[in-house]
Amino acid sequence: MEATMVKSPPRTLIEVFRSLPEGTLAQLIENQLIMTAALRYKHQRISNDINVKLSNFINHNQIGEVLDAPIDVYLDDKNAYQPDIIFISNENKGIIYDDGLYGAPDLVIEILSKSTAKYDLKDKKNVYERSGVREYWVVYPESKEVEGYFLEDGNYGNPITGKGSICSRLLDHELIF
Fold first, then answer.
1. Would you kindly state where each structural domain of the chain is located, as residue ranges?
2. Which pTM value belongs to this model?
3. Beta carbons of 105 and 133 less than 8 angstroms apart
4. Of the ranges 3-12, 29-38, 148-157, which one carries the lowest mean pLDDT score?
């Protein structure tokens, strides 16, 4: 008779999150498991436009790596996100592992959707700030308005705003979409 090993069930929400099937659209936000639906066309179109332009710039200058959702970004034991677009500088590539990123990306871009806007604008922004994300951009897909937050002395100040472009201080580059 063969013995079977029983794996113990997950005991924390981060363990539950890690046990979800690959590709599951879910985030752990301040120790709450948030499931999301597939993204809308306009959201995907803008995300793709920004991702292509940012990737072209980063690859041409060989300064890091750009990744897009869904990829898990583990910021602490209560927060694991799937940002729309992230940039990791060459100096920060040590946070990249096969199963996700463990630590703060240098730049995060979130394209708002009705189901996640309240998290992106408050909870996630606060966690990005305290985790050390150097630049955080929020894009409103309907209007193409953007808000950019820059980490200075451990805090995000008032955002800069614009329309149809992201003026990254970190990259010293403007992305027009």
1. 13-176
2. 0.91
3. yes
4. 3-12
- Count of other CB atoms within 10 angstroms of residue 86: 26
Q: How large a percentage of the chain has pLDDT more than 70?
A: 95
Give kind and range of the element (H or E) at residue 159: none
User: DSSP secondary structure string, 34-92?
Assistant: EE-PPPPHHHHHHHHHHHHHHHHHHHHHT-EEEEESS--EEEETTEEE--SEEEEEGGG
Return phi, psi of residue 122, to 5°: -125, -75
CB atoms within 10 A of CB 34: 15
Residue 73 clears pLDDT 70, i.e. is over it:
yes
Say which CATH architecture domain 13-176 belongs to: Alpha-Beta Complex (3.90)
